[in-house]
Amino acid sequence: MSNDIMGTQSFSKVGFNEMTPHIYRFSEAPIWDLQRSYYQEQGIHAWQSEEVPQYITNNPIIAVAYAEMIIGFLQDRIRLGDATEPFTILELGAGSGRLAFHILKELCELRDYSGLSLPPFRYVMSDLAVKNIAYWQQHSSLLPFVQQGVLDFATFDAVRDTEIHLTQADIRIQPGDLQQPLMVIANYFFD
């Protein structure tokens, strides 16, 4: 192997195996732990300080698209005759809660004004940061959805956890517990 004038190895003389980077899952990458620590330490302040960009992933236009897809899915389940059990929509890494608010607002409006007979649903905002959940549980814009029974919260580590503990309903969802497919939103989960 020779070095060029920049002090780097010449690609033409390096074997393929020497050039191949170590391949691992994203959740095993060093940056994953840095991000986890950052969000756990900062909690909601990561978004309030505007350190984390969010409008592009948390705006009403995207929320409408998600809500329309969810409504379409629920209608498909009705057509299949499989709509008696409630549906769970799990948002991974819900962060500031802004996307959940916009989706729930649109979902409830579509449900209330469309005249459609939809199965019951529960939207679960989850995050690794306990600080975020405490913030959501007190947020005046989210409380009406909690009172309607369509919103719950969970601390959830998508890499390590195998069950979801809902804070409002005080129940645990384990693999195999749900009768309906779990809908997952991972909109800003993979930075």
Keywords:
single chain; 191 residues; alpha/beta; 4-stranded parallel beta sheet; two-stranded antiparallel ribbon; 7 helices; 6 strands; disordered N terminus
Global mean pLDDT: 82
Q: In percent terms, what proportion of residues is strand?
A: 5-15%
Net shape: globular
Q: Would you tell me the structural class of the helices and strands? A: alpha/beta
Largest sheet: 4 strands, parallel
Order of helices and strands: HHHHEHEHHEEEE
Helix content: 25-40%
Using only CA atoms, what is the Rg?
A: 21 Å
Number of strands: 6
Termini separation comes to: 37 Å
User: How many individual helices?
Assistant: 7
Strand order of the largest sheet: 3-2-1-6
| Unreliable residue stretches | 1-16
Would you mind describing this structure in some detail?
- The protein has helices spanning 16-19, 30-42, 45-48, 60-79, 98-114, 130-138, 143-148, and strands at residues 87-91, 121-127, 151-155, 164-166, 171-173, 183-185.
- With 191 residues, the chain is an alpha/beta fold.
- The protein has a four-stranded parallel beta sheet. Strands 4-5 form a two-stranded antiparallel ribbon.
- The two termini are 37 Å apart.
